[in-house]
Amino acid sequence: MALRIYNTLTQRKEPFTPQREGKVGMYVCGITVYDLCHVGHARAFVVFDVIYRYLKYRGYEVTYVRNFTDIDDKIIARAQREETPWEEIVERYIQRFHEDMTALGVERPQVEPRVTDHIPEIIELVQGLIAQGYAYPVGGDIYYAVERFPSYGRLSGRNLQELQAGARIEVDERKVNPLDFALWKASKPGEPAWDSPWGKGRPGWHIECSAMSMKYLGESFDIHGGGQDLIFPHHENEIAQSEAYTGRPFARYWIHNGFINVNQEKMSKSLGNFFTIAEILKRYHPEVIRFFLLSKHYRSPIDFAPQHVEQSRRGLNELYRLRRRIEELFKEGGTAVPGGMVAEGLSEEEQGLREELPLWRGRFEEAMDNDFNTAQVLGYLFQWGKRLGQLLEGGKANGRPAALSLLREAWEEILGMGHVLGLFSIATAAYPLEEGQGAGFAWADLVAAVEHGEGEICQWRTPEALGRLKERIEQRGDARRRKDWAEADRIREELAREGIALEDTPAGTAIRFRE
User: Fold this and answer.
1) Rg of the chain, C-alpha, whole Å
2) Which helix (H) or strand (E) holds 225?
3) Residue 158 and residue 231 in contact, taking contact as beta carbons nearer than 8 Å
4) Smallest Cα–Cα separation from 90: which of 57, 108, 107, 67?
5) Would you say 47 and 293 are in contact if contact means Cβ atoms under 8 Å apart?
């Protein structure tokens, strides 16, 4: 099966045919570096990391470009608020971004261009649009004239008349059309600025991505990606200015990942359900987050709720436990048949697996070729892992080289497919198979109690609140191990006032919520 990609531009799945055989150019919109990244960013960059990995797995030579917007109103505002040079704000949050991405196992693109390093290219592009009649100056500002581009709205599926009728754009009487957007902004006192033919200023948001993508990938390239929130106006405007400038199609395949909701509500700072990557990594192992983000098809919305992340944790734990059992089996002296699998000495059940194993890779590729269906792949990994677990029951494979060889080759297949998704990247011993061991309680049980509880329990039904609760219970467990009974009692009494009862038992700490 050939790789098929859902193209936002055509609203259908299409066979993937790169412009140059064996080579792929991919541009993904990066972040504006004025704050910490949130879980929505995590989804976008994990999704495109998997796409990047799979294209390489398929044998393509991929040039992957992901930019940094390092000059913007929000960066300037933060610098002024903190009384800090804007350059320091930029460096701080680029560093934090790289730390987050490294933790999540996201591979770095070959090119990470910054806007401020590409001012000459941006100015040249703006000059070309003015010369061709697609842009016009107003004082020191330059605007793109959307009415000059007949197919404006094609990506987002809207026509210009509908957009004008529903425009919620601040009225600027200087613009010919309310939808006209800034290519270049005249500088204001005290703001960073660069010399241009129109006076000192800085680029608009949309023009920077056109300039950087075309510099590194050419005037027409294969894949342009980002979140669904970028379809309009950002990507729509990129197409308009790029194709007007070159007279050629800009990007052939447009890929957009879906939104993240928190407990079935849109994630936003105003709703108080906004979580940074750093915050969620304090509560969950990075591979758990990655597993969770890939558990739904990338175009579908995904609900970031404790019970869903916990489900992913349990699922990933099952696979790591299987890995540990197989590794321990070989450490204990298990010897496989040299040269791979043989049928001799296999049980009927094992023989069935041996015959099925060559089909696994094909099913994996079929799922990934179907618009990168990672959710289906994870389902396969569970299914196949369960098969291997059954073969390990009761020491069935012990002392049987043919069975051990089968187990090893089957697990290596699972491991290889997992690596394409960025999973199983750490040693088994380094992966925390148990949550909350020090506190003596089951995190899964706590999540379940919150999920199904009523009344005041609902106050704990967010990842942030559950994280705080978990931290306090673990602090009490640490106090008990230190025999600091006064501190342990203080935390228990504090939680009791909040409706949580802790009872110490020989099996650990039992938790219940007072109704």
Assistant:
1) 27
2) strand 221-227
3) no
4) 67
5) yes
> How far apart are alpha carbons 111 and 129 in whole angstroms?
26
pLDDT digits (tens, 9 = 90+) for 117-139: 999 999 999 999 999 999 999 99
pLDDT digits (tens, 9 = 90+) for 357-383: 999 999 999 999 999 999 999 999 999
By three-state DSSP, how is residue 265 classified? strand
29 is in an annotated binding site: yes
Give the DSSP letter string of 113-167.
-BGGG-HHHHHHHHHHHHHTTSEEEETTEEEE-GGGSTTTTTTTT--HHHHHHT-
209 is in an annotated binding site: yes
Burial class (CB in 10 A: 0-12, 13-18, 19+), 267: middle
The answer to whether the CB of 314 falls within 8 A of the CB of 444 is yes
- Residue 238 among known ligand-binding residues: yes
For residue 318, say whether it is annotated as part of any ligand binding site: no
269 is in an annotated binding site: yes
pTM of the predicted model as reported, rounded to 2 decimal places = 0.83
Q: Which residues does the chain have with pLDDT short of 70?
A: 165-171, 268-272, 332-344, 434-464, 467, 503-515
